[in-house]
Write a structure and sequence with these properties.
The structure is a homodimer of 594-residue chains. Chain A has 17 helices and eleven strands. Chain A is α+β, with helices and mostly antiparallel strands and 594 residues long. Among the domains of chain A are: 140 residues, Butyryl-Coa Dehydrogenase, subunit A, domain 1 (Orthogonal Bundle), CATH 1.10.540.10; 124 residues, Butyryl-CoA Dehydrogenase, subunit A, domain 2 (Beta Barrel), CATH 2.40.110.20; 130 residues. In chain A, the strands form three sheets. In chain A, strands 3, 4, 5, 6, 7, 10 and 11 form a seven-stranded mixed beta sheet that branches. In chain A, strands 1-2 form a two-stranded antiparallel sheet. In chain A, strand 4 and strand 5 form a beta hairpin. In chain A, helix 2 packs antiparallel against helix 4, helix 4 packs across helix 5 and helix 14 runs antiparallel to helix 16. The longest helix of chain A has 37 residues. The first copy, chain A, is globular. The first copy, chain A, starts with 7 loop residues before the first helix and ends in a 7-residue tail after the last helix. In chain A, 62% of the residues are buried. The interface between A and B is large, with 100 and 100 residues.
């Protein structure tokens, strides 16, 4: 069976000891986010995830969502669990108190998201989307729009969606056909069909606020002719009372590999009343607020599932008796040793653990910079933090979802044949994790974002936000003998990343296909190196605390760091070689011969 | 949608041009296996797979098997498709004509298996198991047993199973509790519960021949006290007529991640009549005949699914219009270019293709040696071939099933969001492929077999069966300028493999945990290097034929070979580094701290 206990100790370590998140209280608006409050939030949210969300995860997968005449029902218990989640305030943790939110840091919000995804990713998607829609409206909505829509969304009584994809138009949104006709009253009439709309219809909230990409009659062709509209399921009267049903309906739901308790809807818009959000024809820019938010949130999905896979596999490996240790029986009084004695089982567990703990540090570092970018009084600090978030967003999305799938698959492997049986729960993690590599921009698109946009932005300024602290760290720690196990491997990977970066930047200028050919391997190289940076920093902290280590927490950190450096990080050498081979091996074969 | 056309051209290339399989006709008993006959078999079997097996693959997955009061029903159409398959003789291709088989080479049988797995792995499992049981009985059964059981199995009227696993005993079969009590008539009474029994019960055959591991009353403890029994579902009278139902019944079927059209059964034996096969207490040795057979067959499952994933993804990538080529519009008359213009999509397709075509060559090379080991008149040639098969069996099983899953996942990724939707069929490939890494000895067990048994056997003689031809090839081709792109990378990987082999052999003698710690990475290093050897040989053939290349077949081989060498094979450098890091990073953390 899968098991999950919210990893509060590790979150506390990342926040307090690695990132010194107590400095968050120095940011205007976050004065109350003291370590004690953060601790209390993590404990309470963790308890709800363990006790309310987790028990519904298997049943939700088996039961799935149902569709009947336009009505979509979530599996049994999901509406109640959703209500418990939002009523505790976990959905609106980071929302502005002006609209009823708790005004807490995104750093904390990311960790609550991780826990929700660990225990029940299908359920976590609903408040996650609402939060993304909230951020978009908070940033781009008129004051009137904000006053009308945000409080109920923050409350969780209404939810949000993002409606982008059409059957012939996914990655390439310039092809969308949904139209928006201006009406006499300043609103618009939206018509068209959207597919793959997560929570496009469901029975857990009173209203659904769709954020829809559509084209105005005078729109320029392609991606520069897209506008964004707010289209509610039920119209809302001036006094806030619920009005009639709008011209939007769910035509069907998809049958999917996983996240079966989260409905994926075909949404039909027929002269639906909608309201322009942000400037006309600038819908992609507006939607990007939500997409960036969603990309980080999807990264948390990968991380959350990896954590559950790790905990479950470690638990199983300590219990399952099978075979004997190669160095002699470890439990001679039992019919066999627990399988955790076997080096190859440990390899799998440590791989999962090193990715998960490293990924948590990466996600928290990114979220902390999101908070700094939003709140810091100093312009330069804000810009710096915003640069780092922009740079790391595609990495958090793609790398953490890739490792989410890898860890889920390793978890199945540790369980052996039982991993393949539904009732054990491990195969569900694989199916649930798989979507995260596909939606919110497939991982190949994240890689193109990294090499094609982020790398060159402001002549490499974003890159320097990672390279400078990396170099500073190497210089500061290089000479310390106790840090050799960690700094040297990191420095080696870092050198490869710098060299690959320079090569891609140069080649890409000459021929963008060269950058495209390197993109996916480069993103992984970057992710692995970023984790090495964070593992080396975690090792530095753990070395300092090693004297006072009753529980063995710091010893485990150091052992996992050493494992990461010696058995995972070497991947960077093959990625580097593959990148430097260039585009030719990819492009020479004619399309017809595939 | 998934598409599949039997890859006859590539099979022909591997058989005739790479491996010179026409030499099979020189082996006694295979005189009729001429290239023409082989061609005819491949075409006919391929047609049946495409036209009969493939159309049932999706419906079988959706409908699944049903269980009611001990009766298990396959999905609609499966019984008929199974009958068409066995009546065409594809199930008994390699069986001895004495028992009604066609007496054709295993090399050909492997390719037919691949095609069956490509089109419908759930269905392919049933005749595959029967074939394994056939081989076991042919090798170990008494003349009476053979005469009684084999003809109906070859015919496909009766099927076979292997009953090893019990709830507390999977990898560690020494723990089994199933008992066999001698009866007065020389038979035995078998009692116990077996789980995970593929096709343990089904409605497509008239009888089921279970091969069951159990312990005799005087059995020594552990793995050396296991015997093997033939336990039929229905007893068979002396005259061959069907007798009463035996004391074996299916208690339930598992709900699984995939291969849903293949029932996985809990089998209860209650004083079931059984017959000893082979010597008492030597059941593991006897069962290994079937396990080795099954391991090669499972490798074909990985390969078969990889082929379907590749073909489907390539087809989709040529059709799906989305975005524009980074080097300017390729299809300016269309709203967008087909996604095959994008380097990253090509990276995914070529990865799948390089693994699949290379894997087919590896599987065929192994099967060819199986034929030589079985039929060659010269003892030395037989021994040499048998050594190579022993060495490559764990690699074919683990490496080809790992790449099966990798390719299935890449296929989903090429389809983007559509890959996650059941009706498109791609996610089923991922679910179906996943089992192959788990059953017939989880892949970690294959790796231990390689480093713990095969590596040291006959003081390294098995290894030399690969190392010698590898070295000879390098020496012969090294100086040819047109072969530089292929020989140099292969030689580099080959050097790493030799060095890692020497290191593991040395360390492993001193401390078996060192070999265990290296095992999985070493098996992959070996698999990648073996594929490099075969790709280099295929490139040599293709270079010779490049002048006469109307279809572009040889050009595609060369391009894929170059891709393999430059973008896949570099993995060997990181595997080498991980291996050489040794066991310490795996073993230092105390089990309680996981």
């Amino acid at each position: 069976m899968t098991v999950y206990t919210a990893p509060i100790d590790d979150m506390r370590f990342v926040l307090n000891e690695l990132l010194h998140a107590e400095t968050l209280t120095e940011l205007p608006g976050y004065e109350e986010a003291t370590p004690d409050l953060v601790d209390a939030v993590l404990s309470e949210a963790g308890k709800l995830c363990e006790e309310v969300l987790l028990p519904l995860n298997r049943t939700g997968d088996e039961e799935g969502c149902t569709y009947e005449n336009g009505v979509v029902r979530l599996p049994s218990g999901f509406k109640e669990a959703y209500e418990a989640f939002v009523q505790s305030g976990w959905g609106s943790l980071a929302a502005d108190p002006e609209f009823g939110g708790q005004g807490l840091p995104a750093t904390l919000g990311a960790m609550v998201k991780e826990m929700a995804c660990s225990s029940n990713i299908s359920l976590a998607i609903l408040p996650g989307l609402t939060e993304g829609a909230y951020h978009l409206l908070e940033r781009w909505g008129s004051d009137e729009q904000k006053a009308k829509w945000l409080p109920k969304m923050v409350e969780g009584t209404w939810s949000g969606t993002m409606c982008l994809t059409e059957p012939h138009s996914g990655t390439d949104l310039g092809l969308i056909r949904t139209r928006a006709e201006p009406a006499d009253d300043g609103s618009y009439r939206i018509s068209g069909t959207k597919i793959f709309i997560s929570c496009g219809e469901q029975d857990a909230t009173e209203n659904i606020v769709h954020l829809v990409l559509a084209k105005l009659p005078d729109a320029p062709a392609g991606i520069r002719g897209i506008s964004l509209f707010l289209v509610p399921k039920f119209l809302v009267k001036e006094d806030g009372a619920m009005g009639p049903r709008n011209g939007v309906a769910c035509g069907s739901i998809e049958h999917k590999m996983g996240i079966k308790a989260s409905p994926t809807c075909v949404m039909n818009f027929e002269d639906a009343e909608g309201y322009l959000v942000g400037p006309p024809h600038k819908g992609m820019r507006v939607m990007f607020t939500m997409m960036n938010d969603a990309r980080l949130a999807v990264g948390m999905q990968g991380l959350g599932l990896a954590e559950t896979a790790y905990q479950s596999a470690a638990d199983y490996a300590k219990e399952r008796l099978q075979g004997r240790s190669l160095s002699g029986a470890m439990a001679p009084d039992k019919p066999a040793d627990p399988i955790i004695v076997h080096p190859d089982v440990r390899r799998m567990l440590l791989t999962m653990r090193a990715y998960t703990e490293g990924g948590r540090a990466l996600a928290a570092w990114t979220a902390l910079n999101l908070d700094i970018a939003a709140k810091h009084p100093d312009d330069a600090r804000r810009e710096e933090a915003d640069d780092l978030v922009s740079l790391l967003t595609p990495i958090v999305k793609a790398f953490l979802t890739d490792i989410g799938s890898e860890c889920a698959n390793l978890g199945v492997q540790v369980f052996g044949g039982h991993g393949y049986i539904r009732e054990w729960g491990m195969e569900q993690l694989v199916r649930d994790a798989r979507i995260a590599q596909l939606y919110e921009g497939a991982n190949g698109i994240q890689a193109l974002d990294l090499v094609g946009r982020k790398m060159g932005q402001h002549t490499g300024r974003l890159l320097r936000r990672f390279f400078h602290p990396g170099m500073d760290f190497i210089e500061a720690e290089m000479e310390k003998s106790e840090m050799q196990d960690f700094v040297l491997p990191f420095a080696k990977a870092f050198g490869r990343l710098q060299q690959a970066t320079a090569w891609i930047a140069q080649q890409g200028l000459r021929d963008p296909e060269e950058a495209g050919a390197a993109a996916t391997d480069y993103l992984r190289l970057f992710g692995l190196t970023a984790l090495a940076y964070l593992w080396a920093r975690m090792a530095a902290v753990a070395l300092e605390k090693a004297g006072d280590d009753e529980t063995g927490f710091y010893r485990a950190k150091l052992a996992t760091a050493r494992f990461y450096m010696t058995r995972i990080l070497p991947q960077t050498s093959s990625l580097f070689a593959a990148i430097m081979a260039g585009k030719k091996p990819l492009m020479e074969l004619e399309a017809e011969l595939f």
